[in-house]
């Protein structure tokens, strides 16, 4: 966790000039992360991601592949993601729009220290780029989408099954088997990672998300459609 004392200590050790030095030391990577991932045709991401967070995650993946640092980068991003979940206050700090260059440099330094990634240039340049572009608040989204890229590269597709109550393993296995047989939802040679989420608001039934596709079989969805039909007919 990033304590205020640790942040202030890191700030004292990393003034604004140090921040500018970090960014200036890796101009090529900085420009690469800021640009659209399609700009580098030599390395192709295993799945297309959208949004600003997806752009940064794809650019980081591309840089990690090119520098043969994909494994350590993936481990560090996973550690950063876990840190953000463990320390909600950190996410609030990262989203602060008034952070000075010294503040951002201190945060980057502390993140590297906590995740023991000081000697990983790919991650260091990436974090410096987020700081320079005032995008540190995207770190949580980027870590999640980078994880998605890693799973896709390993031939793994996430299937999220949302239900009103927790599902037993037998039911989840049957759903996994049924979806795996679908060539439309799961490509050949792919494997599913099944996650069950509980949301009482759907009332009953299931909402199945596979990749970027959603199959809504929830009771709440059926009620909403029925209400719309009744409203349109009046």
UniProtKB/TrEMBL annotation:
Keyword check for Transport: yes
Membrane is among the record's keywords: yes
Major subcellular site: membrane
UniProtKB keywords: ATP synthesis, Hydrogen ion transport, Ion transport, Membrane, Transport
Subcellular localization, as worded in the UniProt entry: Membrane
GO molecular function annotations of the record: proton-transporting ATP synthase activity, rotational mechanism
GO cellular component: mitochondrial inner membrane; proton-transporting ATP synthase complex
InterPro entries in the cross-refs: ATP_synth_OSCP/delta_N_sf, ATPase_OSCP/d_CS, ATPase_OSCP/dsu
Family recorded in the similarity comment: Belongs to the ATPase delta chain family.
PANTHER family: ATP SYNTHASE DELTA CHAIN
Protein name in the entry: ATP synthase subunit 5, mitochondrial
């Amino acid at each position: 966790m990033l304590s205020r004392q640790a942040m202030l200590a890191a700030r004292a050790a990393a003034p604004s000039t140090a921040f500018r030095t970090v960014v200036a030391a890796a101009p090529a990577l900085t420009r690469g992360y800021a640009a659209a991932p399609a700009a580098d045709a030599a390395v192709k991401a295993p799945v297309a991601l959208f949004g600003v967070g997806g752009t940064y995650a794809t650019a980081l993946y591309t840089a990690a592949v090119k520098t043969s640092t994909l494994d350590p980068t993936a481990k560090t991003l996973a550690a950063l993601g876990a840190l953000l979940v463990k320390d909600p206050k950190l996410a609030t700090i990262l989203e602060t729009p008034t952070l000075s260059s010294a503040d951002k440099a201190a945060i980057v330094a502390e993140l590297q220290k906590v995740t023991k990634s000081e000697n990983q240039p790919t991650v260091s340049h990436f974090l410096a780029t987020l700081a320079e572009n005032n995008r540190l608040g995207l770190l949580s989204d980027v870590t999640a989408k980078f994880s998605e890229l890693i799973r896709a590269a390993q031939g793994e597709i996430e299937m999220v099954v949302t239900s009103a109550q927790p599902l037993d393993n037998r039911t989840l296995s049957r759903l996994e088997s049924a979806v795996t047989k679908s060539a439309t939802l799961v490509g050949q040679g792919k494997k599913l990672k099944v996650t069950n989420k509980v949301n009482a608001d759907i009332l009953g039934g299931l909402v199945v998300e596979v990749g970027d596709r959603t199959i809504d079989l929830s009771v709440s969805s059926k009620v909403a459609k029925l209400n719309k039909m009744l409203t349109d007919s009046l």
